[in-house]
Each structure stands twice: as C-alpha cells, then as structure tokens.
Design a protein that fits this description.
Strand content: 15-25%
Distance between the termini: 75 Å
Shape: globular
Length: about 725
C-alpha cells in the first residue's frame, strides 16, 4: 500500500495493488485533518479489477434518496467507464477513512459534485499515464473510450483492467490541475438511471436493516412508557418468561439524560423493558404479558390543548425576545391602506417511515458489532459507547439500507437499545419496533403558532409585516427544529418587518423532518402573502414577483437569497400551469401558487384543487418549476425526489397530525395517522430550469411550497382561508 501525498494541496491518493487489481483511495479535502496520511479522510474508494469491473464504495448511508446511485455516477463519468461495469458497495462507518458519513440536509450533491468528478478524473489520468509509459509516448497522445485507453496516432488500445496494476508506479496528478469533461460529452451524468438496488428491492432480497440475520441470533421487542421518560414502576417479568420461546426479560433503568442526550438528535436509552426470544413473535407475545406499570412523570401535564392555551396567553403579553426589527412596523401598519391580521398554527408530525426502527447487534469479548439503517452512524457509535461504557473504537457500525428516513434515522435510539440488549442477552439480537412503538416514540416535527399582521399601501405594495412566533423550548433552549431564522422570507423584501419569539417549555422529543423548519414556515408565510395579495386586489403570482423586486441577489452568504432565481421559477410555473386562464375553472375549483427557497433550491409550485360540497378536497394536479443549478445528475432520481416531496407535503396538509394528551402521543398507527393513498395521488409535472449555478440537492426543497400551494388553491376555490393544519372537511363544508 502506497500513499502519494500531494503536499502543496494537502491532498492524497492511496494506492493498493493486489492480485485482485488496483484500488485507489482519494482524499481531496484540501486541508489535512491529521498528520498521519493513513487517517486523513478519503472521499471515495475506486477499484479497477483485471476484468475491467469498476467497484465504487458508497461512503454515505442510503435511505431511498438515491445517493448510492447518483454519487458513483459522478466518478464513473469522469473515469470514462460504461455504467454496466460499475459495481457499488456500501462502506461501513469509518470516520478515520471517510470523515463524516451521513444522509441529511440535501447535501450530497453540493458537497460532492466537484470532488467526486475529480476522483474519477484522477483515476482516468493515472490509467492514461500507465498506458503512455507502456507505449513510450506522452499522455497527450492518448485518449479514453469507456473502459479503455487509445493511442491516437496508431489506434492501439489497452483495457483499464490490463493497466490497473501498472498504476501502482504512477504518481497521481493534482486533481485541480485536471480538465474535467465538457458536459456535451457526458455519457452517464444527465442520463436517467434506476436506483442501483432496485432489482433487490422489487424481488424482496435481503437488503434493509429489518432483513439482517446473524448466526445464533435472538429477537427483541422493547416497551417504553407512553409518557416520555417515565420510569418502570413494576412489570410482570415471570408472565413474560412463561411464553414459549422467551429467553430473557431485561428491565432497563435507562439514562437520566436519555430523553435529551447532549449533542444528539432524538432519544438515548430510556427506561424500558426488553423481551428477548427465539422469534420476534414470541418476544412480542411476551411483551404483551408484561403488564408494565409506569411511575408518574412531570411530562404528564403536557397536552395539545394546553399548548394552544399557552400560545394564546403568550401572544396576549409581551414577546420574550425579538428576532428581527426593520423600520417601524407599528407606524407602517397604521399608515397602510389595508391591513390583515391572522393566526396560523401547525401540528406536531411523525416521520412515519415505512420500515420501523430496528437494529441488529452482537456483543462479544468486549467489542460490539452493529448493523443499523442509520442516517448518522458516528453520533450513534459515540452515544452507544458512552451508554455502554466502552470505547468508540471497540464498536463497528455496518450501514445498511434504510426503508425511508426523512430525518428520523438521524437519531440512533434504536442502536443504543439493541446494543444494550445484546450485551445483556449474551447473544446476537435483532431489535424490531412495532409501528405503534415508532409512532409513540418518534422525535417529532414540532408544532408552532404564528400571530401575524400585515399592511399594504395604496399601490398594492407590502409595506409592513409582523409575526409573533410562539414555539417550544427544551431545557431553556429552542427545541430541535423549532426555530425560525430572522431572515425568513419575506424579510429583507419588506421595509418594515418585526419578528418576535416566545417559547413554551416542553419535554417532548423533537427533531428534523424532511425540509426541517421550512416544511412548516412555508405554509405560514406563503399563505399569509397570498392573503396580502388578495387584500391588495392583486394577482397572487404577480404579487409574489413584484415583492421580489429587481435585484438578482439580496443579502450575503450564507444567508443570500437569489431573488432573480425565484422570479425565474415563478414565471416558469405560471406558464406551465396556464395561470392566466384560472378564471375559466368550474365552480369549486381553484389554482394556488407558492414559492420557497430551501436547501439551496428555488421552487415555485401551482396546485389545482377541487372542493366538494361536503368539504372534501381533491388535488387534481401540481406543477413544479425548480432551479437547482445547471445539471441534473440523474433525471430519474431527481423526478422521483420532487414528485415524492410534493406528495409527501400534500399528505401532511390533508391528513397528518400528532396530538398529545396526558403527556402521551394519541396516534398509534396508520389508522389514526393516515398517509396519502394511491387513489388520492395526482400528476406532478416538473420542469428543471437550467441556470449557471452549481447543482444542489433535491431530497427536501420541493416539499415546503406544496402545502401553501394547496391551501391557497382552496381559498381560490371556496373563499375560505386555511390557517391551521391538517385540512378537515369541517373547515370547508358548504
């Protein structure tokens, strides 16, 4: 194994040669993170076998967002190989080798667009140099076709496989010195590719966390208090043990800080009882006989009703703090030609990923091995090590595909639980939550309350906006994903803006849900902007474009807002949807428009809805115009993400809410927390605007504007304004 350290740029290429071929490990980080080259994080491993097969290691978790396919496409394109010869394997969690490995924030594309193409370019340059050396010519005399190097003067060819071993003696070039491909020559980037694992998925082959099996493995089911953090008062352990197949019952005291572990999303090890058996069904039957009694807990005083009452009381008093104060809002409201005052609210939400939380763990000789469908493996390893009192380096985390994540698997409570139970059981254990467990012990998208005032002048300009945002706090700080930036649109586009914040103390675990923060704030602000447009007697689409003004960019990084890009998607979606003909729609139907900037993506959406006399809502179609830069790497995956996001957002608007009573979640399954069904789905037409900007991610930014596009369309259809979610027929009955 040889390390080539390009010291001028603090970059490295690891070269390993064996009978199996050549393996290249690339670190293009630009800044050394350790003195020892061997522990400097690598961006990728690429191996070329003698038979020409190229294996690319996917370092980040795959939870359905498509990065296991999309990121290797970048390498394969610049390496110049046929996609058919590419094999993709999932890396284990290894912070020394890879640095941070995670899935979240729609960050895969912006973080890897440049560096992974350069990984492929370096490997291609090394193969060219190996061929040039063999032919005693200069690299300039050589070109590549998929999987081979060609000597231009003579037409001689060498396959990559035949050159792989010779690359051991080639000094890698500085990645920044290489000229990347002209996009016009792309054979892979920009071409629709099915997800790499699709055959295994549709044929039901073992792939997901729930599919893991270990020799001698037992199964575990774990019960926790309905009231968050409550301790076990008593449990009928003997009754559970009497069930055939039950091997052990473990009463877990839990971590005193398990509800809100420092530095982690979600929960740690909470008070609970685990039943371990030779089948999961036996474990579940044993659990059902535990008859656990739970100790009283302060969280029992919390309820959805009390939260709403506290929010109203806080709004009646002075705000606790100010987040933004531009101009003189009070004077501007007084001088406005028309004013609007409205209260908006949205509920807590569950992630409801289809694969419930699960983890397989094996503890042996003081070392722990874990198979987890996690989005965030290293914090899970650290939390597990701290909880079990062992060294992090004694824990190996194998990342397996997750059946949906949406932010839920950024937390690793199920990992800690499986590890604890496996150690106590003395055997490999697969822990599997029930759907009811998953619903009752999520880290929820927090609810919130907004009390808004707005004013327009005689010319129809939005000149004043005030929002008193009542949110939630945990241990004195704003709860996870419950904040609002002071730059929240339309701040910076309105001369007089005042954002105030008050907080309700709470002990319910919260965390990021797809497009965190934005998924709720877009509903509030884009709905209220629509209200202001109607107050001004203006076309809502034209009002949005006018509000953005003439500047290309407002603000400075990292809070810069591309007003020109947003105008572009608004104009595009207006054309796509036939916005100007909306007056010809039948009675009870309407179009609504909304736009939003989230996760570096600019999106505008128009929804067409029909509202029946009984108040039921039918979404007939949604149009989406998106600006995520100059390149769509995998159009198949991109379309999947946008359409899925829109359907997800509309499902939230129409159906979903978590309510709390007596400190416990009232919903338990898809019967009382329904997701959109196939019969309710609708066409989603998507247009990607090609702009000059680097490409950005697509897992989240299409979701936020979907909700207000629907609620604004409902107003256009009925004249009734939706200010709280979810939308129910009672709100809209004729």
């Amino acid at each position: 194994m040889t390390y080539h350290d390009l010291k001028a740029n603090r970059r490295q290429v690891l070269v390993s040669v064996s009978a199996g071929g050549l393996t290249l490990g690339f670190s293009l980080a630009g800044k050394a993170q350790a003195q020892d080259d061997a522990v400097r994080p690598l961006n990728a491993y690429v191996s070329v076998a003698p038979n020409g097969v190229v294996t690319i290691t996917a370092k980040n978790p795959e939870v359905g967002q498509g990065i296991k396919t999309m990121l290797p496409m970048l390498i394969a394109e610049e390496l110049d190989v046929a996609w058919e010869v590419v094999r993709i394997v999932q890396a284990d969690n290894d912070p020394k080798a890879f640095g941070r490995q995670f899935a979240g924030g729609s960050m895969a594309t912006p973080l890897h667009w440049d560096e992974l193409r350069r990984v492929g370019a370096v490997a291609r340059a090394m193969l060219i140099q190996a061929a040039a050396t063999a032919w005693n010519c200069g690299p300039a005399d050589c070109v590549t076709a998929p999987g081979e190097v060609i000597h231009k003067p003579s037409g001689k060819k060498r396959s990559y496989g035949s050159l792989a071993l010779a690359c051991a003696s080639v000094t890698p070039p500085d990645p920044k010195s290489l000229t990347l491909k002209d996009p016009k020559t792309y054979r892979i980037i920009g071409k629709p590719m099915a997800q790499y694992d699709v055959e295994k998925i549709v044929t039901g082959q073992p792939l997901f966390g729930i599919d893991q099996v270990r020799p001698g493995m037992l199964y575990a089911s774990i019960v926790k208090a309905p009231v968050f953090g409550a301790k076990v008062a008593s449990a009928d352990v003997e009754a559970a043990k009497a069930v055939k197949g039950v091997k052990k019952v473990i009463v877990i005291d839990g971590d005193p800080n398990g509800l809100f572990p420092t530095g982690n999303i979600g929960q740690g090890l909470l008070p609970s009882v685990a039943v371990v058996a030779d089948s999961w069904w036996a474990a579940k039957k044993g659990r059902d006989r535990l008859n656990v009694k739970w100790a009283d807990h302060p969280t029992q005083a919390q309820s959805t009703k009390s939260f709403a009452e506290q929010a109203a009381a806080l709004n009646a008093g002075a705000p606790q703090r100010n987040a933004r104060n531009d101009g003189d809002v009070a004077a501007a409201l007084k001088a406005s030609a028309k004013t609007v005052e409205a209260a908006y609210s949205y509920p807590f939400l569950s992630h409801a990923n289809l694969e419930p939380q699960n983890c397989t763990a094996e503890f042996k000789d003081g070392k722990l091995e874990i198979w987890a469908p996690t989005q965030n493996p290293e914090p899970g390893r650290q939390l597990t090590a701290k909880t079990l009192g062992i060294k992090p380096e004694d824990i190996t985390v194998h990342m397996v595909r997750g059946g949906g994540g949406f932010g839920r698997r950024l937390a690793n409570d199920y990992m800690v639980e499986a590890a604890w139970v496996a150690r106590e059981a003395g055997a490999p254990v697969k822990l599997l939550w029930t759907r009811e467990d998953d619903m009752a012990h999520d880290h929820y998208r927090p609810g919130g309350y907004h009390y808004l005032k707005g004013g327009v002048d005689a010319q129809g300009n939005l000149i004043a906006l005030q929002d008193h945002f009542v949110t939630f706090s945990q241990n004195g700080a704003i709860a996870a994903s419950a904040g609002m930036p002071g730059s929240e649109f339309p701040a910076r586009f309105v001369p007089n803006v005042k954002y105030d914040v008050s907080m309700i103390p709470m002990a319910i675990p919260t965390g990021p849900l797809r497009a965190p923060g934005s998924n709720a704030l877009a509903f509030v602000f884009q709905s209220f902007i629509d209200e202001m447009a109607h107050a001004a007697g203006a076309d809502p689409l034209a009002f949005q474009i006018k509000l953005l003004g003439d500047q290309a960019v407002v603000g400075t990084p990292p809070a810069a807002f591309g007003a020109g890009r947003m105008r572009g998607v608004l104009k595009a979606v207006g054309e796509m949807s036939g916005w100007d003909t909306r007056g010809k729609l039948p009675k009870g139907e309407g179009l609504g428009v909304a736009c939003y900037y989230s996760h570096q993506g600019y999106f505008a959406e128009v929804a067409h809805v029909a509202v029946a006399g009984d108040g039921s809502v039918k979404v007939k179609k949604v149009w989406v115009a998106a600006d995520v830069g100059h390149t769509i790497i995998n159009p198949h995956g991109a379309l999947n993400q946008v359409q899925g996001s829109v359907l997800d957002g509309v499902s939230e608007a129409l159906h979903q809410q978590i309510t709390i009573e007596g400190g416990a979640t009232q919903q338990s399954n898809f019967t009382d927390y329904p997701l959109m069904r196939i019969a309710e789905s609708f066409p989603v037409e998507v247009k990607f605007l090609k702009t000059e900007f680097p490409p950005t991610g697509l897992g989240e930014p299409a979701l936020p504007p979907a909700l207000p596009a629907v609620t604004n369309a409902i107003f256009a259809a009925t004249g009734k304004r939706i200010r709280s979610l979810p939308i129910t027929p009672d709100m809209l009955k004729a």
